[in-house]
Design brief:
By secondary structure, this protein is an all-alpha fold. The protein is about 60% helix and about 0% strand. It is flat and about 40 Å long. The chain starts with about 25 loop residues before the first helix and ends with a helix.
Length: about 80
């Protein structure tokens, strides 16, 4: 199972048209994640959350639980 490698920032990105040569992730994956982060940011802004840190912590905690649950379910399936 590959490990996630975070972006090192746009100034560090170098790609070959398919993958970032710095973090090794596909450009499609990077684009998808940027889109999802943008949607999460838009949701917080649209709802005028005055506590963005708590929102971010909640999203991170929930996401970790959902991933663990789905991985467990996929390993249990015959």
């Amino acid at each position: 199972m590959p490990l996630f490698a975070p972006c090192q920032g746009k100034t560090a990105c170098r790609d070959d048209g398919q993958r970032c040569l710095t973090c090794g992730r596909s450009l499609a994956e990077i684009g998808a994640l940027r889109g999802l982060i943008g949607q999460l940011a838009d949701l917080a802004i649209e709802n005028d959350y005055g506590n963005p840190g708590q929102y971010v912590e909640y999203v991170a905690t929930r996401l970790q639980k959902v991933i663990a649950h789905r991985q467990k379910a996929s390993h249990a399936a015959p």
